[in-house]
Amino acid sequence: MNHPSFLGFSLTVIATATLALADHPGYQVEAVPFEKGIDQEVGGIDILPDGRLAVCFHHGDIRLYDPKTKGWTVFGSGLHEPLGIVAESSSSFVVMQRPELTRISDTDGDGKADFYETVCDDFGMTGNYHEFAFGPIRDPDGNYVVSLNVASNGAPVRDEIRGEWLELGLPREDFKKAWGTVKRKAGRMYSRAPYRGWVVKIDPKTGEMTPWASGFRSPNGMGYDQDGRLFVTDNQGDWRGTSPLYHVEKGKFYGHPASLPWEEGYDGPAPLEIPVPELEKRRTPAAVWFTQGSMANSPTQPILIPEGFGPFAGQLLVGEMNRARIVRVMLEEINGVVQGACTPFIDDSGLARGINRLAFGPDQTLWTGQTHLSWAGGEGMRRIQWKPEGQFQDVRDISLKTQGFDLEFLEPVATADLEKITLRRYTFAYHSAYGSPQKEKADVSFEIRALGSDQTKFRVTTKEALRPDFCYEFQLPMCQNPLLCYTVREIP
Amino acid sequence: MTSQGFVITPLVLLTALFLPASAQNKKKVKTTTIEAVEGLRFSPVRFSMRQDEQLKLKFVNKDPNDQPHNLAIIKPGSLKAIQDASLKIGPDSIENDYIPENDAILAAIGLLETDQEESLTFEPTGKGVYPFVCTFPGHAAIMYGAIYVDQRPPKDLISDTNIPQIIRDQEMQKLKESLAVERPHVMRAFLPNAGPAAIAVALPGDLNFCWDAGTCRPRYAWSGAFVDPRAMLNSNGSRFTQILGPEFWSAGGDENTFGIKLDDPKARPDFKGYRLLEGIPEFHYTLGELDVRERLYSEEGQLRWHFSIKGASDPVKIYAPGAVTTTRGTREGDFLVVGPKSAQNLILTIKSSS
Fold first, then answer.
1. What is the pLDDT of residues A474-490, one digit of tens each?
2. Of A217, A490, B7, B178, which one has the greatest count of Cβ atoms within 10 A?
3. Residues with Cβ < 8 Å from A108, sequence gap 6 or more?
4. In sequence order, which ranges of A325-424 are alpha helices (DSSP H)?
């Protein structure tokens, strides 16, 4: 099969080669070899106990990659848009495909899958193309966590659906008529089959599904931090002024109202008729905003940085679809609320666009897998290794204070360079329209002074009082990655 | 169709026979090379340009079979007339390099031997599809191509009626080869006329079927080529995977549909997955008290439907009108009624020759 996207891949390879001059001083990026002409859109990556990689692909394959031989073998095939994989052993994988969470096993020892066992299919499908199913990842207790995309009004629903139909608001008949004339009434993104817009947990043995948290739109990325806290990314759009990272807890609502009618005992109006102030009151806002246009447009999977991968262990990395970038997230808890900052981690330097999935190998190698699904993005895989001898400047960590921020740099900062730092702030609207411009933008004046004598720690004291629900954007020209944004929710 | 027996005269270069008045205007030049290649073909067989451009076309004869070829750009819609005219010109038109005298001819290059090349310039007089054709005796019927002037060509060659059928057939063959799968083969996909959780299966013997993992039953079967998933895979899933062969059996819609019927109309099947037995899936589901495994396979050109139904305390009713036969149980109208014991190993045959 000849897919036009292969052209995109070859261009990516060329771009990679020309960017070699701009390699990151602290990290080595190299492309993973693929057979020519083979599907390279990655839906999920996990690491086997023996160090091999299990990767699932857009066209439905599960293939195993051996980093030692750089060779691929096909394990299974025929899956429907798999977007996540967990290796339960070297011969058994749990994959989230559009219709089901499926355990795929080799039971006769020939190295190929022969048993496709449904773990859970207790969620609905209207057949709308945007009803992706993301995950699974495992929670600290071993349960599978899955996130379910809502439908897009770019298309109606199919005549035949799986599961219950939600008859609320726009009648089902309207989903069959001339869609163009009624689609606006459905909401930009809608949820008419169970648990669309939810994060759910699934018992790995019984397959029992527990709705966990609601209010999601296109939650293509889940991960746990070192304290067992669940983080989920979402994509700019309706009710998403810019793309967010949420700290997700059981029973909470994360702002996109389409999912609310699937709450147990829900007797409220159609989602678009719920007054916005009521939604405001209920919702848990983002722990981190990824500023659209400068930080990330479509953030993907968050992953915990292990020890042995450079100076940022314990923080999170997040993939990004629209540019060749991995974003780094620094979190802290203030007044019981998890919030924090983001900054590019690696830009270009051999990366590709479309970084959809990330996985750390046992040798602290970071693997990335790219996709695009006909949107912005890329293809193929990259292997990223830390160069312990490589020196570079970046903010190692940031912490919010009552009247400013404490910044900790990797390397000493010359006093003259401090004057080059700038700070501004802005916020994003919460509304049903698609995205939000930066609102109430203003430069922020501040003083900066060193803490301690080694010129790596500094306190930034702002001249105006900090404002909750604002993003504070630093430009730090002395850094490898000058852009750094802190999302203020609580102020200590 | 052979050039032997004809005396080939030195080339007569017939550049633009027809020059529009606007030729003096400075126009953007579009440069294209067309080759005559083996098998009486032009390559490329089509290209696009704008009507405000001037075409500079280089024609190269690369035919390894020592066939002479000419090239004439002709008026939109005149292909049939020129093909007919080319049949009528005889050896006496050698001097004109077999280019018929016809108002439809807008520009032409005379006969070229292998490895010779010539160029012409051409300015279209409006939008449309301008054929180019070789009028050497016997060639015109299959040796032509199309210039799309301010008009979008069909996306693929297969559906382009302005190019020779033989090229479209070859493209279709190439497509079929690229879509061929090693049978048996299982592919989950968005398929037409099924629920959103559907499975396509290719069986040996060029039989194929769609099984619905939502309603747990086969939906339809077709013969011949398997599926074309490109539309689905090249979109974000907003388009269906296409069925390639003719359907020979359908299980019907939601109400009167083939399959096990329980007295409890609310009973819904629960899909447990499938196991590959010699590459062919054996689907497993529960329905009420029943634990069902079913496997469709091909045998002697027929589609067999094997059931292993456990947990039945009463006879099992299977709605199966028409072209489905079995060696066990009794037929009661549109239903097959099978005893609990027989239901544990039951084979139905779906007729595939109708």
1. 999 999 999 999 999 99
2. A217
3. A114
4. 415-418
